[in-house]
Amino acid sequence: MFCRITFGGSICWFGRFLLKDLFRKTHYPVRFNRKKQQVHVYQVSGEVITVPWSDIFFTTSKQRISYCIVGHLLAEDKETVLNTFSFGYVGQRAELSLYWEFIRCYMEEDCLEELAETVLFCPPVEKRKEGYIAGLQRLMQIDSRADWFLLVLNLPFALIESIARYIAMQTSKIPQWPQEVIDACAVEPNDPINVGAENNEPHRWRTVLANETQEAYDAKNQRLKSANQKIKEKLDAKYGGKI
Q1: What is the pTM of this model?
Q2: Where do the H-state alpha helices sit in the chain?
Q3: How far is CA 225 from the centre of its chain?
């Protein structure tokens, strides 16, 4: 009897895994159109919606022990939720606050060059599927050398999850934006800002394992400190230090 229950539970878990992660989309992107003040959302259903930035009610949603940012589209009564989409980023409130401020500043403030300096890594998933190594690195990344012991303990689980992640990626399709969205978000030929996976710094494993050289670590932090200070000065000048 116990074996039957265990087997049945395994079948249910595997079936849920197949339905939730396999044969879907590799990811469900959101595009922010600063010039037109629009947001393009690729939904789980496969439908692509375009909504004005000002019409979206942004908030946080509890995800067990963490949170994610979601956008609600409201009815005219401003209470009934007609549609909801997620940014796909999960973390604690402090992390989400920084993540949200980056998005808000991109859409509303005049500090694009400084924001570009705060982007240290772009996942290599534009127009291609995530490779096995890239997925494994995402699962293994730690913040400091003090986490090495935990990394060793979690390594077997990360390896197992990385295989499932890779299978899910290989059986899923890359989301394709409609041509009208591509045209609306076309980058100007003379745009001086170029942020993408092709510009990621080399030696990715050093960053993943928190084992960068002191020189590289100091340079990265100085870059972030300088960019954030410039953003703060611009916002203080605009809002009188009230933001």
Answers
A1: 0.86
A2: 2-21, 93-108, 112-117, 132-140, 148-171, 179-184, 204-208, 214-239
A3: 22
Confidence of residue 240 (pLDDT cuts 50, 70, 90): confident
Q: How confident is residue 2, by pLDDT bands cut at 50, 70 and 90?
A: very low
In order of 28, 78, 110, 191, the CA distances from 234 in angstroms are: 33, 33, 8, 21
Q: What is the number of structural domains in the chain?
A: 1
Cβ neighbours around 101 below 10 Å, total: 15
Whether residue 156 is contained in a domain is answered as no
- Asked, for residue 140, whether it belongs to a domain, the answer is no
The domain in which residue 221 lies consists of 24-129+172-239
The reply to whether 158 falls in a domain is no
Is residue 228 one of the residues assigned to a domain?
Answer: yes
CA pair distance 201, 219, nearest whole angstrom: 12
